[in-house]
């Protein structure tokens, strides 16, 4: 992944604005420290901050076609890029080995519909000079980040950026560009191109669960995400989701080394050079001393025989990082900041080892109803509608966290659970199969899909203690004292008098706790402009299901270490 910044239709000569654009693009350089690019043409500017993972030697951006009439700046990875190249005319001249260049040439053939053919995570801006046309698109779920901005003093001018911080000084309105959409200046409209069968949350599926299909679909999703020319690893918390991804990645890595996996099967594109440089999979975990996640990650890593790297942080390390985390995450959402802080600290350690790409387990809880508050779902239909809504809003929460916590240090996180094909399988399962209650653990069907206990000849994916471990939200699993200390610290930072006036200070999204007030205040210090709050959405459990407002898993009574228990 990288950082992109673009301005369309500046008033006057864009060359006079070049240095300003470079200054704004530099605010994204943590996302792409390997190289910078800038193209100024007419009254348009496209900038790029590159993190080189595929096409390392030749993939500098912005990309252009032979006559430089089409210019492209991309943040992301296109997993089916080899198949896309085959769709281009035989005489097409590819200048680079970049997985993104096919977008440029396919646009010349099929126009904006090119976005419908992409399998990957991406945000991009494309300029067609001949038509004076700009397109902007974001991947189906919003794994990558993209913002759009306007300045009322420059009507007709459009701004696009990977992060808010490159826009807040220039724009008086900023939105999170909607995932699964494409903007076309020719029509002036932003339209949804992503139209999966499960999109209508009120349409309740009745498909019986197919455990084999779930398992094989996730294995394929992991396999295609091993496309890399640089060493990679896995984030391993010891929870079900990250451990499954690590298990599959370890298996696929060994298959590649043994020559058992055709590199381009089904459009997959796994580069042997990255595997050869680190022939054993490396795993990474973080937590406070003695945390549940560190202990569980050790068990998983030993079982999978990964080269495991375990890091401990202190509560003070985390507290010291809060302001930087808010700056990079660009949110004041409580649960996102709680979980992002240890992930931010771990990403710095990972980057120091020379790793640029990691696999992560985001998305499974939204897909399978894995959060503990789903135990309170009134019905299977309610559960399904909630899972659809949670998946649709991942770009405000877990996707935002996974992207920005890692990219703050130039590390790319890939999330196999959010693969389009896997979503088609998992989101169409009868939600009765996803219901959890006493005697049936959350994400039961995902666990069962990888449970080999009924086949004594099969190699287990995970030890039972991990496969059937209760859901532990990352902000809890790194150590229970982490959230407890955040709450206690907020009590010392926010006075009763100030908290009583919270609604006067912030009528929109008024903080309901002193912890939320603290984060909102830090956010305002970094982003004082009113326009910056439009892209923030808070993550809270379903109060109408009788769930506590505190997003911690321990706030739910079914948690083994809950704050409160039924008598």
From TrEMBL:
GO terms for cellular component: cytosol. CDD domains: Asn_synthase_B_C (cd01991), AsnB (cd00712). Residues 2-188 form the Glutamine amidotransferase type-2 domain. ATP binds at residues 235, 286, 360-361. Keywords: Amino-acid biosynthesis, Asparagine biosynthesis, ATP-binding, Glutamine amidotransferase, Ligase, Nucleotide-binding. Its EC number is 6.3.5.4. Pathway: Amino-acid biosynthesis; L-asparagine biosynthesis; L-asparagine from L-aspartate (L-Gln route): step 1/1. L-glutamine binds at residue 99. It catalyses: L-aspartate + L-glutamine + ATP + H2O = L-asparagine + L-glutamate + AMP + diphosphate + H(+). This is asparagine synthase (glutamine-hydrolyzing). It comes from Entomortierella parvispora.
